[in-house]
Design a protein that fits this description.
With 384 residues, the protein is mainly beta. Helices cover 3% and strands 38% of the residues. An eight-stranded antiparallel sheet has the order 4-26-6-7-14-9-12-18. Strands 5-23-22-25-20-19 form a six-stranded antiparallel sheet. The chain has a four-stranded mixed sheet with strand order 3-16-15-8, with no helix packed on it. Strand 15 and strand 16 form a beta hairpin.
Length: 384
């Protein structure tokens, strides 16, 4: 591919799993490997502590940031780690400032927009985002966040790739009829985004000997990384809005896999949206008490009124951790109150992990301390 003067563009094949999975060809104006300097990028606190003694926890995420801080906080450096393990890290940020150029060289990112709007500029082009969007950014894709207004962002960072569940896909990769969303709901960049400049710094998060095996490097590029005049392929960033998710319902209670939207390495992402609930005449609409013996469950409450948690202090902006090894379910009285309900007006994002989660700096800061004892109606002993 040549420019108007006959000069060859520089091809970059960006591919997953040793070029044996999805890939895209990007056509650069300049050499994409040309760095002129590197330096250490000191990450925010990435250390985690075990959830021991084991207990369910309620985190109040809206207490992490003051409104006055938003204009000085960006979506990359400002993230604070709530929970993490070797497969996934969950962070939260309230951002109003433009972020640095950034890429995650460890895994894909799936960022849920609790509220706000703006643009994510990427090497593939620009992605507008709005409240309710999942913004899915492939590993190693250079990008930056430009909020149009204050954006509350819930960042799910994988150690590998994040994609629709395999059971939703045909053997050739098409979303099937039983899937709760389809290709027309996924919105990628519309056109190339060309930047100008030299000595451009890009923050790179990558593997190393830091807490959690994660470190950062600042790479300075001779020319602007946004110099891709065109690309083709099946690997690219996109948005999917939670309002376009079509919930699966039934006569009796549907288990969490019915609410799945994405999967990663050793974790899944589900969402609970406003929906008609069980219509069997003897149905109990709220969930049964359950022990997800292979998983820790993290629920982020983003809208509506979550029926099963009434009376526990859970509100919009809350996150609950229900660890494997602890049976959990509706709060006292919720089962009886739900009888006869036909519709639940609730909105939540859930992450289930197959390895135990540890608590990050932000999680320790906004652990409200008493949620574990709400099933006993406030009766609690001391932590030992």
């Amino acid at each position: 591919m040549r420019d108007a003067d006959g000069r060859l563009h520089y091809e970059e094949l960006m591919g997953e799993e040793g070029f044996s999975s999805d890939s895209s060809l990007l056509y650069h104006r300049e050499i994409p490997s040309a760095i002129v300097a590197t330096a250490t990028w000191e990450l925010t606190d990435q250390a985690t502590a075990p959830n021991h003694p084991l207990r369910p926890i309620h985190f109040t995420l809206h207490d992490l940031f003051r409104d006055s801080e938003a204009d000085m906080t960006d979506a990359v450096i400002g993230r604070r780690l709530v929970l993490g393990n070797g497969d996934v890290r969950i962070s939260y940020v309230v951002a109003g400032a433009v972020s640095p150029y950034y890429r995650n060289a460890i895994g894909d990112e799936c960022v849920y927009v609790e509220s706000g709007s703006g643009i994510v500029e990427t090497v593939f082009g620009a992605l507008p985002y709005r409240t309710g969007d999942y913004v899915v950014i492939p590993r190693a894709a250079t990008h930056r966040w430009l909020p149009a207004d204050v954006s509350r962002l819930y960042a799910i960072e994988g150690q590998g790739h994040i994609a629709p569940p395999k059971r939703y896909l045909s053997r050739y990769g098409q979303l099937l009829e039983h899937a709760p969303f389809c290709e027309r709901d996924l919105h990628g960049p519309a056109e190339p985004l060309l930047g100008e400049g030299s000595d451009v710094e890009v923050l790179v998060k990558h593997r190393g000997d830091g807490p959690g095996g994660i470190v950062g490097t600042t790479m300075t590029y001779a020319t602007h990384p946004f110099d891709v005049v065109g690309w083709d392929g099946c690997l690219y960033p996109y948005t999917f809005n939670i309002e376009d998710y079509m919930p699966l319902t039934g006569k009796v209670h549907q288990p969490p896999p019915a609410h799945q939207v994405f999967e990663g390495n050793n974790f899944v992402i589900c969402n609970f949206v406003p929906r008609k609930v069980d219509y069997h005449p003897l149905a109990v609409p709220v969930p049964y008490y359950h022990s997800n013996v292979d998983s820790d469950e993290v629920m982020f409450y983003v809208g509506g009124d979550y029926e099963a948690r009434k009376g526990s202090g859970i509100d919009v902006g809350s996150v609950t951790l229900h660890p494997g090894g602890h049976a959990h379910g509706p709060q006292p009285g919720a089962t009886e109150r739900s009888l006869g309900a036909e519709f639940f007006d609730e909105l939540a994002v859930m992450v289930d992990t197959f390895r135990p989660l540890e608590v990050g700096e932000a999680g320790r800061t906004v652990d409200e301390g008493v949620y574990a004892y709400t099933w006993a109606q406030g009766r609690s002993g001391s932590l030992r």
